[in-house]
Amino acid sequence: MAAPDASRVPAWVDPMLAKADGGRLRSGPEWTYEYKLDGYRAAMRIAPDGTTVLTSRNNIDFTDEFAELAGVLAPALDGRAAYLDGEVVVYGEDGRIDFELMQERRGRYVRHQTAGRDKPFDDLPVRFLAFDLLRLGDQTLLTTPYDERRRLLAGLPMPDPYRVSVVRAVTFDELAADRRTPDDFLKHAAAAGYEGVVAKLRNSAYVPGQRPDSWLKHPLIRTQEVIICGWRPGQRSFTGTLGGLLLGAHDPETGDLVYIGDVGTGFSQAARADLQAQLEALERRTHPFVTMPPREDTVRARWVEPRLVGEIVYRQFTRAGRVRHTAWRGLRHDKKPGDVVAPRAVPREPAPAPPPSGQRITVQAGNRRLTLSNLDKVLYPADGFTKGEVINYYSRVAPVLLPHLAGRPVTFIRYPDGVTGEKWFEKNVPNGAPSWLRTVRLPSTGSRGGGDSIDYALLDDLPALVWAANMAALELHVPQWTVDGGTDRLVFDLDPGPGTTIVECARVAERLHDILVADGLTPYAKTSGSKGMQLYCGIRTDDPAAPSAYAKRLAQRLARETPESVTAVMAKAQRTGRVFIDWSQNNPAKTTVAPYSLRGRDHPTVSTPVTWPEVRACEHVSHLRFTAEEVLDRLDDHGDLLAGLCDDAVPLP
């Protein structure tokens, strides 16, 4: 029998993949834990004579790109072949693995190759971190238990640990001996800047190409591979270059290419230019998805052939199939479009089945028992969002909503037949309101000075809020004053005219922010839940007319400075192509939609407090549009972003 070719590297093996653990890090003596790395998955295949080939998870040859890694392990193998599974990484100046630097290195390597330069490419040092051993000598280790594979891997000498090393692994028992837990290991991974932790069963085999339950990943950040299906040209400071990407992935059930959202942040200037050049060469006339994306997301879209794969960071994947709060991480040349599958929305706890149509049920809300009806009635037909879901939303958002309603007379906009039916404004408490509901009688003008009176509802507690929601009072509007405390808020209502959107409102909001801060005020921002947004400041004043006068001065100032984009005049003829700064919302007779109120639009959108970084990053209407479900998720991350409004109150300038 002929001797094996000493230069023949082991055959490539489709890599084993880790399955998401559903948010529960596994625990027990049967588990070992490794750091989840943030680089390029790669196989290092070494022939008996030391010939080394590096390949990606899709069998793309990486050897030339990472030439400094080739041959490093050969002296330690004593003429044996070897197959190591691992990750190629780059470190930043802070000593942490930096995926963005890896992306920059990749771009420079491509330009180096394109230019045909002869000198070696050693622009940024890389390191191969091995976490598994699939072959050593003539012995294949695929069916060998993980513990034994790791023992053999750890036993290999590392001649140059700066270039090739082994990922740290620790068993449950080793953690327990140190009086530590898997959660402690996870916290250490977070503090050290790792992407997460992978739990591996100690007796498990290596299963090529599969994603079994024996490898479970627990990410500290959510990342998603995406297919670039289109792009939008940039605006303002990004005019002339790429502004954002339109993303796709394959539906996990049908395999269809579906739209999953967009990304407009996280790009360096070089990345924007490089991506634009690549995408312009792939342009096509129509979108590549199985169904048309939402019209508002396709404004100015330029479609491309779905060939490039990238990676994003995101915070949430919604029930509607959209990634939210995204940031770009870079292209993934090691991935194929066919491998990109959309994430699955994390299901909420199932709601109780609604009663039959028209049936009444009695529930406990706080210290009151309320009778609710028609919970299965659809109020938002486009989403199938029912009255029961409206009541559920207001019940869950109550802890942050009620402080913004307390002591303020509420004007309701009711939609008893849903948002496609008739609506009406209601100030007077309706007949049949519960006797325990707090009310206040005020002049009908709202100016507290003569005329007929109106009995307003005061929604100060959960039972009152649930009662209002059961009336299909989707929208809650309040003034900038309280019954007992007087005027305590200043508001600027930014209303986009025809040809403008919330994107233009965000630009005006940035300008107002700087003026208000210079005047000693602390501005807070929220969306209107419709087309525009509002800015609030906590103030102290004894003059009810002063807030309108101050707001009008600022609105007129911005209109003078940029008359082409801002108007302080209410006349609709003046609004086309401009943002109207409605300073009159500070009039004591006026009301503004309350923070966290639903809106009576096609979808259950919410007037949502937002951060200033979110305002500054807004480049598309979808970036500042939030539904009830998304707002509840935001509360887990942010709490009430308007919580400091009263604490930051200062005398009105």
TrEMBL record:
A Pfam match: LigD_Prim-Pol
GO molecular-function terms, A-Z: DNA ligase (ATP) activity
Residues in ATP-dependent DNA ligase family profile domain copies: 119-251
Enzyme Commission code: 6.5.1.1
Reaction catalyzed: ATP + (deoxyribonucleotide)n-3'-hydroxyl + 5'-phospho-(deoxyribonucleotide)m = (deoxyribonucleotide)n+m + AMP + diphosphate
Family membership: In the N-terminal section; belongs to the LigD polymerase family. In the C-terminal section; belongs to the ATP-dependent DNA ligase family.
Keywords: ATP-binding, DNA damage, DNA recombination, DNA repair, DNA-binding, DNA-directed DNA polymerase, Exonuclease, Hydrolase, Ligase, Manganese, Metal-binding, Multifunctional enzyme, Nuclease, Nucleotide-binding, Nucleotidyltransferase, Transferase
Organism phylogeny: Bacteria, Bacillati, Actinomycetota, Actinomycetes, Pseudonocardiales
Cited PANTHER family: BIFUNCTIONAL NON-HOMOLOGOUS END JOINING PROTEIN LIGD
Entry annotated with the keyword Oxidoreductase: no
Disordered, as annotated region: 334-360
SUPFAM superfamilies xrefs: DNA ligase/mRNA capping enzyme, catalytic domain, Nucleic acid-binding proteins
Keyword Ion transport: no
Enzyme class per UniProt: ligase
Cofactor: Mn(2+)
Residue intervals passing through the bilayer: none
Organism of origin: Amycolatopsis nalaikhensis
Name of the protein in its database record: DNA ligase (ATP)
